[in-house]
Amino acid sequence: MEPHQFFPLRHPLSDDTPLAAALHSLGTTLCARDRGTYAHSARLVPYAHKIGTILGLPPDRLRILRQGAFLHDIGKLLVHEQILTKPGFLSDSEWSVMRQHPASGHRIATAWSVPESVTGIILTHHEWYDGSGYPLGLKGRRISLEARICALVDVLDALTSIRPYRRPISFAEAASAIQAERGTHFDPLVVDAFLTVPVDVWAGLRHAAVSASPAAGDKPFDRFDKPNAKVVRSAGAHPPHCSDPGLHHMPCSAAHLCF
Ligand SMILES: [Fe+2]
Fold this sequence. Notes:
Layout lengths: L17 H16 L1 H20 L4 H13 L9 H4 L7 H7 L2 H11 L4 H9 L20 H15 L11 H10 L7 H8 L3 H14 L9 H4 L4 E4 L21 E4 L1
Antiparallel strand pairs: 1-2
Helix pairs in contact: 1-2, 2-3, 2-8, 2-11, 3-7, 3-8, 6-7, 7-8, 8-9
């Protein structure tokens, strides 16, 4: 499917306000530049809403959560495509560029007059519950609950989606991987809420998002479809700048593909 066939995009945010229209415009810009990141962002909206609902967030905070989930990676507009789609490990300089996307996204969204409650989610979605995340190294409940929810669903979608360097894993495997990071990467409260939902429900949410809007589907990577493609996996531990945003306790899934 050619990129122009995805436009106009279905509006992934359920509210119909001037702000939501502006956010939709930002999302459309992201889709035109980087369809894979747009698809990932659109899928995060129902995932984040599901966990927020289980945790009893009121409607106004659920709206903020959905907006933050949709825009969390908007800073990748400023990351060069060669880095975004690199099938392997990032160099020191590439990694330092990639790590700037939360702050870049915060600046972009602030310039669009997006409220601080939402820009804060963008800035802190790569913080870890144990304080080892970036860019601020915030710990525990110094990270907003909305950002802690986004951190989990960000990884859930990353693991269950095609990446330039690997195939997706199942929702059941992703749930196990997320449970293993309870209290380190992820807030135990958010993990426990996530685990109350059967894995087929998460798969159903993904299917519904993609059915409603083809632009929310995985961007195909031709290299996986070539019959002679041979995936050469890296051995074991994650190298320092692995481009896989997945989980550190798992064997590194980054792969080089040889034809
Ligand atoms: Fe991100």
